[in-house]
Amino acid sequence: MLAIEDISSLEAIRLLDLAERYVEVSRQTDKRQLVLQGRTQVNLFFEASTRTQSSFEIAGKRMGADVMNMAVATSAVSKGETLLDTAMTINAMQPDFLVVRHPSSGAAELLAQKVSCAVINAGDGQHEHPTQALLDALTIRRHKETFEGLTVAICGDVLHSRVARSNIHLLNRLGAHVRVVAPSTLLPSGIANFGVEVHRSMETGLRGADVVMMLRLQLERMTGAFVPSIREYYRFYGLDAGKLRLAKPDAMVMHPGPMNRGIEIDSDAADGVQSVIREQVEMGVAVRMAVLDALSRNIPGGDNA
Amino acid sequence: MINPARQNARRRAYVNAEIVAPAQGLAGRGGILIEDGWILDVGPKVTKDSVGSSAQITDCKGVALIPGLIDMRVFTGEPGTEYRETLASASEAAAAGGVTTMIVMPNTQPVIDDAAIVDFILRRARDTASVRVAAMAAITKGLQGELMTEIGLLKEAGAVAITEGTKAVASANVFRRALTYAKDFDLLVVQHVEEPTLSTGVMNAGEAASRLGLSGNPAMAEVIMLERDLRLVEMTGARYHASQISSRQSVEVMRAAKAKGLPVTCGVSIHHLVLNENDIGAYRTFFKLSPPLRAEEDRRALVEALSDGTIDVIVSGHDPHSADTKRLPFAEAAYGAIGLETMLSAALGLHHNDGVPMARLVETMSSMPAGILRLETGRLAPGAPADFALLDKHLSWTVEKDGLRSRAKNSPFERRTLEGRAVETVVAGESVFAYARR
User: Fold this and answer.
1) Do residues B224 and B196 make contact, with C-beta atoms less than 8 angstroms apart?
2) Are B206 and B295 in contact (CB under 8 A)?
3) Cβ distance B209 to B151 under 8 Å?
4) Closest Cα in chain A, distance from residue B351 (Å)
5) Which of A127, A159, A165 has the highest number of chain B CBs within 10 A, making it the mutation to test binding with B?
6) Residue of A84, A106, A191 with shortest CB distance to B210
């Protein structure tokens, strides 16, 4: 699984249905599944991540796989080994799944061309983060009956966000009406051609929205001045109770995490009754279990192989 | 006393060819008679009968005979990174592509910023390369963009122009002085037109880049540098050549500058004429170029500008890179593609598919660069050096990694079938390449 752009709406819905089952499983006392028994999953993270890496680790373990986390900071990568060398080395150890996160767009694609196991993109640069979009869709579906006609406002640093790209592709495909809300300096060029409505102010962008999805301001990716100051950004684009009132009264507040409290979202909005941010984390494990399950059927030794 | 037999042995003729040498007004059936590396006669009068037994005769069987190509933008790894390419290996690729003169860029280690290094290149080329080699020297010491090189001494050592190769001189003041000083020595100044602070992206800015999540490099970065430079040319009167332009807007800027009568010319890489940003597909790094491949609309504007004379020369932009700098995530991979061996074949595609006349293609790769660089090659005329190529316009061949002569294999045409290619290449009267059908 490399990109949402390659997945049909039917495949996405099947994954969401499968994930529902794993939500139930995860709420049981005994969570053990045997689907991936004997399988090896390697989490290869070239970028610091707490939540995605632990989510994939828990998902893999619940499914019965042997999970290994590759600590990149202490590995050969810091000794100058290239991405492909590292991947080929791991590939030689015969894993069944490689979960990859990398700061460069296209890194997962490059790996998938060279290794023989299933590759799951856990975020590549500013390109895609497919399991995040699936978990967001699952969270939305559990609160709203249908995606048809739903207005989803994706707000903030769209330019640097792989989460935004994957969500735009998936939600569009599922029939939702997607808006992006950001200052022009944080919008990728040609974004209107992605099939979204483009807004430069929260006032128009949030009006009547069913879902308000906030994005992390990726200060670490900014190599130039995209916004003048945190203070100004918060004033115009930070989600607070006042701005949230513009959306529908039952609008959901979402955030892929980790949050910059007081920058793109304030604590009232993040922890309020409309927030589903913690539920997103729970859905993340279920979605990843579903993705591993679905992929396991298509690798050597799987049901459909 | 000249021994007639020996004289005859040195004298050779290629007859029954379709001669395409627009700068000399030659088009049609004819031949060429050469002796000791020089052209004695060329044209319809040179036939099997007219030559008789005075020379060794090759029957071209109707294939085209064109001036040897001059490639104004070639990078090798010599000196410094010979694992990428040497002058010798690049010259093999050149010969296979009908290129008889390659102009190497100063981006070597050490940089060609000193007369001694120009001398080194020319002597290494004389001893190891199978085609002619000339060098452009750096505009500033170490390509640092600050201190001017010894422009007069570099010219004396044989440098045909000055350039920073892969980057522009960012400081308007430094560039103005370089233009002013170079004018006194009547030396051409060649600029890579990209405004550095605006060109931090890795592909063309736009929807395609946004979808791939790659940072974009807007066409405006090129236009701004070009417009700045043209103002400085207006001010200084120096001879200026934009190494490669890549966008529709730059074409308009060049067209206006030429209409004004400024002493300016420009080039385009063969890759920008036949490929566009969509060829990058799923992060294919062999298509990562500087300037980046742009939209189809830009490509079409470039082809039109080539036809109408706004663009003066086609270059290969030959830039060899090994797997360790190319088999990386797109943003981290090196810029550049090889092209010496495929430039002519790809250019013929413009004739076959886009209707660009053969004569125009030939002159943009021979007499035009020769004129800009003031070389004595690039023409088919009595008294000129005997550099030419035989070209089978319809011979189709597939670009295979293992068949490429360049030491590096980063060709964007890999596994593509191209129509037409050089079947024999002659430099100074010596055959340096003959195509063996496989």
Assistant:
1) no
2) yes
3) no
4) 33
5) A127
6) A191
Q: How far apart are CA B318 and CA B333, in angstroms?
A: 16
Question: Starting at the edge strand that comes first in sequence, how are the strands of the sheet with A211-214 ordered?
Answer: A197-199, A177-181, A151-155, A211-214, A252-254
Q: Is the ipTM of this complex over 0.85?
A: yes
How far off is chain A from B111, nearest CA to CA, in Å? 26
Sign of the C-alpha dihedral, residues B43, B46, B48, B50? positive
pLDDT digits (tens, 9 = 90+) for B410-427: 999 999 999 999 999 999
Of the candidates A5, A102, A188, the beta carbon closest to that of B329 is on A102
Print the SS3 string covering A7-70: CCHHHHHHHHHHHHHHHHHHHCCCCCCCCCCCCEEEEEECCCCCHHHHHHHHHHHHCCCEEEEE
pLDDT digits (tens, 9 = 90+) for B353-412: 999 999 999 999 999 999 999 999 999 999 999 999 999 999 999 999 999 999 999 999
Instruction: Give the closest residue to A213 by CA, choosing from A143, A134, A275, A129.
Output: A275
Residue of chain A whose alpha carbon sits nearest to that of B212:
A127
The pTM of the full predicted model, rounded to 2 decimals, is: 0.92
Distance from CA of A22 to the nearest CA of B (A): 31
Cβ contact A205:A186 at 8 Å: no
Query: What pLDDT does residue B2 have?
Result: 44
Taking only Cα atoms into account, the Rg of chain A, rounded to an integer number of angstroms, comes to 19
**CB-based contact B210 A162, cutoff 8 Å:** no
Name the β-bridge partners of B265: B241
Nearest CB to A109; choose among B206, B282, B324: B282
Q: List the Cα angle B99/B427/B80 in 5-degree steps.
A: 60
Give A-chain residues touching B200 at CB under 8 angstroms. 223
| Per-residue pLDDT at B52 exceeds 80 | yes
pLDDT tens, position by position, A97-155: 999 999 999 999 999 998 999 999 999 999 999 999 999 999 999 999 899 999 999 99
Which among B213, B329, B331 has CB closest to A128?
Answer: B213
Residue A2 contacts residue A112 (beta carbons within 8 Å): yes
The distance of A32 to chain B (nearest Cα, Å) reads 37
